[in-house]
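Trying the structure run again after the queue cleared.
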Amino acid sequence: MPAPRLAGHVLVDQLRIHGTDHVFCVPGESYLPVLDGLFDADIQVTVCRQEGGAAIMAEAYGKLTRRPGVCLVTRAPGAANAFAGVHVASQDSTPMILLVGQIDRAMRDREAFQEMDYRAVFGTQVKWAAQIDQAERIPEYLSRAFHVALSGRPGPVVLALPEDMLGETIVVADARPCRVPHTLPAPAQVRDLSDRLARAERPLAILGGSRWDADAVRVFGAFAQRHAIPVAVQFRRQMLCPVDHPCFIGDLGLGADPRLLAAVRESDLILVVGGRLSEVPSQGYTLLDIPDPSQTLIHVHPDVGELNHVYQADVAMACAPADWLRAIEACAPTATASRRLRCERLHADRQAWSDPSSVRHPGRLQMGLVMEHLNAVLPDDAILTNGAGNYATWLHRFYRFRAYGTQLAPTSGSMGYGLPAAVAAQRLHPDRRVVCFAGDGCFMMHGQEFATAVQYGLPIIVILIDNGMLGTIRMHQERRYPGRVSATTLRNPDFAAYARAFGGHGERVETTAEFAPALQRAFDSGLPSILHCLLDPEAVTPTTTLSKLRAGG
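Done. Tokens:
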């Protein structure tokens, strides 16, 4: 017979049983028994400065570990702040569990202090939203939460925890550790895939989604070489194929290389593995015909509900990338001389497109040369994070991602993501270099989490690109309403002083020559650092300027 336990302690025990070794939170009186349970638990706790930052950190944890990131927040205002991180987890297919304090059960439906119907508010954005009203069912609910978050297409789960329920003392048995079921393609599907690959003259693979690991990336790379298949990655999934892999041909993101888009359109077989081919990688749903693509489409995705959802596939296989790769590893090589030549040509096109030394723009700080320096000095396992904004183009186009587990970026395009994600990454990997790219607008969305980095002694490097405006919106504004600047100008603080005020290292960088020594001093400081990089507002993208946009160029 199990010993009597506080319900909040039972919940913490379930987290530990299901493999949780870290939680991110902003504390609240609504879940004090859980906080008390964490006091004795072998679970690290990161206390954040705002629930939005905590939720993003949990999502980043999910991306890096492939286990549900756990975020603890208090009632309605806390849950509302966390919503953006939940949305990232949903669109990015990241396993995550948001645990929310709730009012006492006896007060429900009276609009009590900070009352919220979490099923209604989060229901359309998560895989499952529920409330635990019976303390004895905590093991059942937590088991289900972990299985739902991890199974099929991973995603977020929200559980509301009534304050009085958590304070009960109960006798209940623990659940067993979560074990996610695996599915494999049918043998007939594998034969069909092999036959179609053998007949294809211009195949092309597009990798995306989640449920990958380093081994799966390596195995797919070998598969692509055996079959001479050019490999593109979806938006912000660049760590799924090393940039120096001979089959790598680029990323289907915003501002993609026109030659890459042409290669997709001219292909006679498209192999989509792991991803949904959603709006950005499909270039606004224009790359493939809907619902029936003109190319042969082979779609591999872990969730059967996503298959044929938009695109009708010739072969649809409901399995995770790693499971699928084990099933098709024995397929006989289908490479031909012409396919190898095509791979070489497209790979060379990508190398030229991503050469940072070839780009010059207005201003004394040249971002192409900054990227060239970062490629030279950062180790292969460095983790790069970013949020949303035109500044991210420099990172996505010119940084040489060389290993799995090195990229944290929201495919949902959520601003403010980069700094909290960097904090989470450094908490998980204190021995690795973590660099956050942020725009001036993006940074200020969750800039307070720099205090979290200082509190835990996390030597993250923030490369803060300041052009005094919300650059992406200004770019679109100048294209559609030239010269009519409205609501996109920013007046920014001295971000180097901001870093120092929190107890970190800060420097102002105005020229290209200043960047490398400033970066080295940031490394040497051992402190969380901000390099406040002043970028000429004219350099709105690597390829155009505000003046050209205003003139209709």
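Residues 9 and 37 are 4 Å apart (CA to CA). Worth checking whether this holds up in the mutant runs.
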